[in-house]
Specification:
CATH topology: TIM Barrel
Distance between the termini: 11 Å
Radius of gyration: 17 Å
CATH class: Alpha Beta
Structural class: alpha/beta
CATH superfamily: Divalent-metal-dependent TIM barrel enzymes
Mean pLDDT: 95
Number of strands: 8
Shape: globular
Amino acid sequence: MAFKLGLKLWSVNTDFYLKEAAQLYDKGTYDYIELYVVPETLDTLKEWKKLNIPFIMHNSHFMHGFNLARDDKRQHNLKIYKQTRQFADELNAKYIIFHGGIDGEVEETARQLASLDEPRALIENKPLRALPNRMGGGNFCRGATVEELCYIREVVRCGFCFDIGHAVCAANSQKKEPYAFLKELLALKPTMFHLSDITDMSSEYDAHPHLGTGKLDIARLKREILPNDAVISVETNKDSKENLDDFVKDVECLNSL
């Protein structure tokens, strides 16, 4: 396998993580940083620009008030996107990943994302059900079904970021066998992937445990789902605020199976 592996960080992680990220990249542990842009953090951009590392951007999502599915959020969404675009421009990011929003209408998601005219855009698949304790009362995510993803991509003409964990959750909500649903989404020809383990393969709700600690058959993914040259951001939880040792173990697990 010749995977290209990514380290997921947030724009606010300019303390311990930034230094360690540089060291791990120099060691060849990973190939790029996927940077989630927290709104109003343009002041951190100068620190990220010091790194000679390829970047992919992740636009902020519902947790930070970005919701493409709601027309009344249009101006707020645009303000947030412009900050992400500045990060992407100055860091020469190859892609910008977007969530489709919560509740609202998928037609609005597609309309707003298309209006950004962003050639680097990727739409990420989501669980059908939003996390009840983190999403401020939102219920259903846009971009959880094959039909919605195909519609968004047809309107926007964008690429696809395939999140494995989200897909399993969405399969459970739709009463589909998870690995069969993964293959359905694979037919959408993803540009890249997000990967974490899964604590409960029957759950509708998203979690991000470390690779090898849950129930996901990662060896099967490597045989049946992940292309040999897949671009994969490892999206597992961070156990420490001072080091990235857990990320190193995730990479070792993925490479060993």
